[in-house]
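Justification of computing resources. Each target in the renewal requires a structure prediction run like the one illustrated here; the chain below, 86 residues long, is used simply to show the kind of job we budget for.
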Amino acid sequence: MNRETRSIITSTMVGVIIGWAVGMAQLIYIGSWQLFYWGFMPLIPIYSALGGALYGMIFGGGGLFAESADSGVESSSADASQSNAA
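Resulting structure tokens:
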């Protein structure tokens, strides 16, 4: 599995967890007993998790959790060009 795919999957899972937690927090904050007897009440955290997954896919596609393999090469070439300029 390449870096980009791993980044998308990781950030999607993080988004699902955060979205589900936000949905549960909404239910706890509302605290209405009539809401608990409503048949569609479990959909609130599920839809929040789905929204978090979508945000996670967007951030993961940008490489949020991707490790950079070329970071050492770029920094050494930047140091060499700065020393030549002086």
